[in-house]
Amino acid sequence: MKYALLVQPAFDKPTSIQAKFFMSILNNVVNLGKLHNIATVTLFGEKANIDEFRLAIAKYDPVLVYFGGHGVETAIYGNSDPLILLGYNQWLLRDRIVYAFNCRSVSVLGRMSQAKAVIGYDKEFLIYNDERYLPVFFNLGFRPLLLLYQGYTVKKVYESTLNLYKYYLTRVALPDDIKEVIEYNYESFNAYGDPNARL
């Protein structure tokens, strides 16, 4: 049995919106995991803290770690404290596949963590604050997690997610200002490490 650790804070407006969409796909993710012999461990809301994170890493030794919430170049945050901090505990990601659905954390941390592979955003992940279009952004944002659970390689996950971005940019009738934000996220999306890594 392999384990995947999903960390989803929900302590401010952006993380609460993200958490709402996370919960909407969680059952699907868990069921996909069962089909592929992957047990899912979730740290949601208040449990997305450094103590619970360390315990989960030590207990389950997950092959995949998903981070929602906030990030900067050198840190990934839980509810308020950093879960991963460059120069302190980035070794916790060593030899794991990481999907960081947050801002900027793969630009430096993702490449220096010794993770097997990291998928995420080099810059901010922007969301257009209009409820009508939120599903578009979160469909794109959670695409890599769903594909990883289906057993695709990091390379295939990356390429498939880029193709979904292109689909929204070229084939879906969306306002220009929405497409500008989608294009920004598209250009920021990146992957590092072993392209053949998979769950």
Question: Quick summary of this structure?
Answer:
The protein is of the alpha/beta class. The protein contains six helices and nine strands.
Largest sheet: 6 strands, mixed
Q: Report the sheet-strand fraction.
A: 15-25%
- CA radius of gyration is 16 Å
Ranges where pLDDT stays below 50 over 5 or more residues in a row are: none
Helix content: 40-55%
**Terminal Cα separation, in Å?**
11 Å
Number of domains: 1
Structural class: alpha/beta
- Rounded average pLDDT: 96
The backbone outline, from C-alpha atoms, is globular
The count of strands amounts to: 9
Order of helices and strands: EHEHEEEEEHEHHHE
Query: How many helices?
Result: 6
**What CATH architecture label applies?**
3-Layer(aba) Sandwich
Describe the secondary-structure layout.
Elements: E1 2-8, H1 13-35, E2 38-44, H2 50-60, E3 64-67, E4 71-72, E5 75-77, E6 82-85, E7 97-100, H3 109-112, E8 117-121, H4 134-149, H5 154-170, H6 176-188, E9 189-193
Parallel strand pairs: 1-2, 1-3, 3-7, 7-8
Antiparallel strand pairs: 4-5, 5-6, 8-9
Give a structural overview:
This protein is α/β, with parallel strands linked by helices and 199 residues long. It has one domain (2-191): 3-Layer(aba) Sandwich (Rossmann fold). Helices cover 42% and strands 21% of the residues. The protein contains six helices and nine strands. The chain has helices spanning 13-35, 50-60, 109-112, 134-149, 154-170, 176-188, and strands at 2-8, 38-44, 64-67, 71-72, 75-77, 82-85, 97-100, 117-121, 189-193. The strands form two sheets. A six-stranded mixed sheet has the order 2-1-3-7-8-9, sandwiched between helices. β1, α1 and β2 (38-44) form a beta-alpha-beta unit. α5 (154-170) packs antiparallel against α6. It is globular and about 45 Å long. The mean pLDDT is 96.
